[in-house]
Design a protein that fits this description.
With 230 residues, the protein is of the alpha+beta class. The chain has six helices and five strands.
């Protein structure tokens, strides 16, 4: 395995984007252990650490659940396509490239090197804020993958097959599945994450209050689309 160049924390934060194309290479046990160790460092309410990670590789249960997830991915993605959620775009547009990449991702979903189901053990009735005790660990998982030269993509494709998945994997009733994440060695390369300009996201002193200091570093690349709020 080639040595992975060290990535600073800032660079990792700026370049951990969704990776949906993977090489036909395994994710090693050592990589999994380190990545999940980093994920387990995520904060949680009252430090209860209620998050759990179900790793699916090539065991008999994993293979069955991979098929269920692939069915769910195809169903969810077709529904989005059919609803016309994406504006018409030329063949060379960013939207067209994204759609093509998603089509390929969904078609090969079952072949992802590793699939992780991050879960959370509920210790009280569901609340609007309970995700705060699992999603920081999920982000740590993705950042940990980036630090090892791996890449991942977070989806909710388990949703339409959740009952069957829970049955196959013996997931207890008190545990909810927070996401479905694919992980592997990127077929392409990591690159800068594109987001809205800082001055559209940061206010000072009041809602919509201008923060003159909220300026992105030179060379920052942004997402397209219209401004919001202002």
């Amino acid at each position: 395995m080639n040595e992975v160049p060290a990535v600073s924390l800032a660079e990792g934060l700026m370049t951990t984007r969704s990776i949906r194309r993977y090489r036909d290479e395994p994710v090693t046990d050592d990589q999994l252990a380190e990545m999940l160790h980093l994920a387990s460092r995520g904060p949680s309410g009252s430090n209860r650490q209620p998050f759990r990670f179900l790793v699916l590789r090539h065991g008999p249960n994993a293979m069955l659940v991979r098929s269920l997830l692939a069915e769910g991915a195809a169903e969810v993605w077709k529904a989005k396509r059919d609803r016309g959620e994406f504006p018409d775009a030329g063949p060379d547009s960013a939207t067209a490239r994204m759609l093509g990449a998603m089509d390929a991702y969904v078609d090969t979903f079952a072949q992802a090197p590793v699939i992780v189901l991050p879960c959370m053990l509920r210790y009280r009735d569901p609340t609007p804020t309970e995700g705060a005790s699992v999603y920081p660990a999920v982000q740590n998982l993705l950042l940990g993958a980036r630090s090892l030269g791996l890449g991942g993509a977070l989806t909710m494709f388990h949703g339409t097959r959740e009952a069957e998945i829970r049955s196959v994997l013996n997931i207890p009733e008190e545990a909810f599945i927070a996401a479905t994440i694919t992980i592997g060695v990127p077929a392409g390369s990591h690159g800068p994450v594109r987001r809205k300009p800082l001055d559209q996201l940061v206010y000072e002193d009041e809602w919509l209050g201008t923060a003159d200091w909220a300026v992105d570093p030179p060379g920052t690349r942004f997402t397209g689309g219209p401004k919001q709020d202002r």
